Amino acid sequence: MNLSIIIPTLGINEVLIKTLYLLNFQENKDFDVFVVDTSLNSDFCLPFETEYKLNYVNCNNYFKGLGKDEIRTKAFARNLGIHLSKSKYILFIDSDMIPHPDLVNEHLKLLKFDVAVVGLELRTILLIEYQKIKAYLDGVKTKTDLEKIFVYSFSNRSRKVLKRRKLEWYKFLTGNLSAKREFFIKTGMFDTSFVFYGFEDLELGYRFDKLGIDIIFNPNALTIHMHPLPIEKRIENKIESVKNLRRFYKKYENKKILEKLGINFYSKLIYGYLPEFLRKNLCRLNKDYLTNYNFWKAWNTKN
User: Cα–Cα distance between 276 and 282 in angstroms, integer?
Assistant: First the structure.
């Protein structure tokens, strides 16, 4: 195979099964798929045949001396997929991504130039939007049916202004990302000590950048991210990500990392020195502000 699609997952869910079905409609069939399950369960059965080679991998069989927290991470799942793949190229997508029929082709167009490629995720932000798309996907029978959803469901989000361009390392987002397998190995793959939410992909992007591997954005490599999050979950993710960000910084002791991520004098000024009454009023107006305030407060008080 020329390319392996690696999908880390915490158990088998309805959207993942739909994703595996829709991969049958890829224009380019020269790929296999690794579903790497960190739930430590073993039940996996699809109600349809795949037109590509599908490999189900249970992380329970690959402890390799790591702790249980580490083998349940996406970092471990991605590394295991890289290890098991024999393909020249690796494409990562999340388990809740709907692939455009030209996804593989659009990644391969740029991969031949020895770069990493980040595709465009179209996000379902609202629950009603998620439900509408899911209902449509249940009726997809052909490649044309699948293509239509990328036109109709996102017609109000203009992509004409998006151009192919070079990205900085902090845009190294593994929900829709590809590179040569040897590049992942050369950079040391994902750091499994990032056991909380966030930053394990950006940290690898930092190492890609240090080795001089360009990261290119291709807005035609499309996926739909079927992942609307309630405010409570977004707050939980923000709080968890502070721990991984702290680990990221301590690994390199490079303040430019923090500056690139927006943690600087201005963030302290905005989030750390507002009067108490103003912070309370802002929190009443916008719950997202509370998320950001707690995030920056946790970081600035401990670093």
Answer: 10
- Domain's final residue, options 228, 248, 265: 228
Only one residue has tokens 């996907």, namely 137
Q: Report CA-CA distances (Å) from 151 to 53, 122, 144.
A: 29, 11, 11
> Is the same domain home to 60 and 155?
yes
Which of 180, 210, 228 is the last residue in one of the domains?
Answer: 228
C-alpha–C-alpha distance, residues 11 and 240, integer Å: 21
Residue whose entry in the numeric block shows the structure tokens 């240090």: 210
Range of the domain at 263: 232-302
Neighbours of 253 (CB within 10 A): 7
Count of positions (residues) in the chain: 303
Give per-residue pLDDT as tens, 75-122: 889 999 999 999 999 999 999 999 999 999 999 999 999 999 999 988
The DSSP H or E segment spanning 70 is: helix 68-71
CATH of the domain at 178: 3.90.550.10
Query: What's the token pair of residue 210?
Result: 């240090």
Q: Are residues 49 and 176 in the same domain?
A: yes
Whole-prediction pTM value? Answer: 0.83
Instruction: Quote the distance between the C-alpha of residue 199 and its chain's center.
Output: 10
